[in-house]
């Protein structure tokens, strides 16, 4: 899980990661990041060390923000 956290920190530093964290009931976590294509998004997801090592599974869902704080 340390490698997973470092991977996410690297994505954050690069401006790719928007938010990430576990659900409080520990059933899953959510990661939201920017990608130019579904292929790029899949590569980001599949290159997470925890996913590559089978420590966790991942699902990819395309998402577009419609409303967010600070938006006018």
From TrEMBL:
Q: Which Pfam families match?
A: YCII (PF03795)
Ranges for domain YCII-related: 3-56
Per the record, the similarity remark reads: Belongs to the YciI family.
Give the protein's recorded name. Answer: YCII-related domain-containing protein
Q: Which domain of life is it from?
A: Bacteria
């Amino acid at each position: 899980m340390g490698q997973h956290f470092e991977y996410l920190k690297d994505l954050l530093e690069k401006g790719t990661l928007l938010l990430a964290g576990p659900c409080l009931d520990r059933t899953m976590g959510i990661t939201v990041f920017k990608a130019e294509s579904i292929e790029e998004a899949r590569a980001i997801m599949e290159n997470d060390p925890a996913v590559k090592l089978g420590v966790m599974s991942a699902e990819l869902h395309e998402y577009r923000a419609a409303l967010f704080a600070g938006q006018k």
